[in-house]
Amino acid sequence: MIKIVFLILWGFALSGCEAKPDPNHLKAVEKVLQETAENMVFVKGGTFMMGDSGDGKEIDHYGATKERYAVKNITLDSYSINKYETTWGELMIYVKDTGRYEYFREVNAREDHPYVAVDDIASPNYFKRAARAPNWYEAEGYCLWLAEKTGLPYALPTEAQWEYAARNRGERVRYATHDGMTLVLDDYLYQEYLTSDPATKERVYVKAYDPLALPKGNAYGLTVSEYEWYSRVVGSYPPNKLGVHDMSGNVQEWVRDWYEKDHYKKMNEVNPQGPSEPKEWYETYDKELIPEKVKRDWVNSSSIYGRKGAGVYDWSNGFRCALNSPEPIR
């Protein structure tokens, strides 16, 4: 019901934007559509063992919880997926084009977590940094907006599509990195520097924060809550072997499926879509029950197989879109 109401409201927002957009905005929309198409990585379909199946040789499992142990072969049709996470710049163009700025500003935004895109590279809202959607529905809404604008079947990836791409078409790898096995946490924002104490002149180590620090590893490991709103510029880390960036690190990502802890035991073997209705619920401080969707790329997990459920109004997750076409679009 929540999803239906959202889509109705979203549709009204689209139809209600009768004012003629300014030329600069039209160019900005066209640029997003063009760059999105250029950034789609084609993923040839196939069959793979979904879940933590180790390396098939010496390691049975890479350390994920038992719910993630592989249970069956999954077959997927070919599709494409964006090699980058959606940026603040792209998200805010969607917001303006659909007339949803007031919704973002008044309903979802927290004072310390604004939904804006800025040119200042030191800002957590720098337009090239990975965005955080205010909820799952806006992440889905962005992909539906791409579909409406282009006539192409853009959508959030299913969990199976996300994992298949992250694992370079289902290889038995530990991380979505250049070699599939190496992950070095980036100490972005949280570093120790050797300096002089101005009072004693002694050499001391101090902890400092630098939002402009260059990448030092493969994944961004959050270290302090004060900087939880930050993310890396998309593409800061090397891609995996398929050519997709930041599937081990940067922001955690929404996927299409409703979350169910043991769904791997019962999922369809061909193009699984997840449960048909909510199965798990998050209880708020006000005792409200919020249905949960799956989010992937749990960077603090021991491997790429980490997954969690998050209430659909969780504001902390990013996303990328997939394209459900059996052929490349370019």
Describe this entry's structure for a reader:
The structure is a single chain. The chain is α+β, with helices and mostly antiparallel strands. It contains 6 helices and 14 strands. It has helices spanning 2-16, 23-39, 88-97, 101-108, 136-150, 159-166; strands spanning 40-43, 46-49, 73-76, 79-82, 154-155, 185-186, 191-196, 203-208, 219-220, 253-258, 281-283, 289-296, 307-311, 322-323. α2 (23-39) crosses α3. The chain is globular, with a radius of gyration of 20 Å. It starts with a helix and ends in a 7-residue tail after the last strand. The relative contact order is 0.19. The model is unreliable at 1-9 and 11-17 (pLDDT under 50).
Average of pLDDT: 87
Order of helices and strands: HHEEEEHHHEHEEEEEEEEE
Number of helices: 6
Strand residue content:
15-25%
* Gyration radius, in Å: 20 Å
Structural class: alpha+beta
Measured between the Cα atoms of the first and last residue, the distance is 37 Å
Which key terms come to mind for this protein?
330 residues; alpha+beta; 4-stranded antiparallel sheet; 22% helix; 18% strand; globular
